[in-house]
Design goal:
This protein is mainly alpha-helical. The protein has nine helices and five strands, in the order ααβββααααββααα. About 45% of the residues lie in helices and about 10% in strands. Strand 4 and strand 5 form a beta hairpin.
């Protein structure tokens, strides 16, 4: 499963795409379908679902938890950035899903104007790659402005499909 995700992301990341076409907004991020508790946009990309009372879907909540476990140290709380790494809440406004997967899995180096920035590869870190969709939907909700800063107060229950995938990915029984 992991190898398939990475190979798909690598193949797609080589396609030339105009950055204007990648601009995300609340309308493009709108959930139009659901599969085992995971919401998808019109293009089939993972997305978030926030109920009128503020309840977030499980994957958005999980993404908040995972981001704050592994990513916030460099990218700042709630993805707002730091002097060390960019604001992912801004980056995802113009970054598509395959590019996100590719960068998280493979890492990235930016050596412009004497300012070296390095994103390490997390493709072999199960605490990240097993939850890349979760982190993506959390940051996407932050990027389009539908999710405020801080821990979501309410969330949906974890689906059996999410439990099964987590067990399989993390090597549980």
């Amino acid at each position: 499963m992991f190898v398939r995700i990475i190979l798909s992301a690598m193949a797609i990341s080589f396609l030339p795409v105009a950055s204007a076409a990648l601009a995300d907004d609340a309308e493009k991020a709108k959930a139009v379908s659901q599969q085992d508790g995971k919401y998808l946009d019109a293009d089939g990309n993972p997305t978030f679902k926030i109920q009128p009372d503020g309840t977030v879907d499980w994957y958005t909540f999980s993404g908040f938890r995972r981001f704050n476990s592994d990513c916030y140290v460099c990218h700042g709380p709630d993805g707002v950035g730091s002097t060390y790494a960019p604001a992912l809440a801004d980056s995802l406004k113009t970054m598509d899903y395959p590019t996100f997967l590719s960068i998280v899995a493979e890492g990235r180096k930016n050596l412009s104007a004497g300012n070296e920035k390095v994103m390490p590869a997390f493709g072999d870190n199960k605490n990240v790659y097993c939850y890349m969709d979760d982190i993506y939907v959390y940051l996407r909700a932050r990027a389009v402005g539908d999710l405020p800063r801080g821990r979501p107060e309410k969330h949906e229950q974890k689906s059996q499909a999410a439990k099964d995938y987590e067990n399989q990915c993390m090597g549980g029984t």
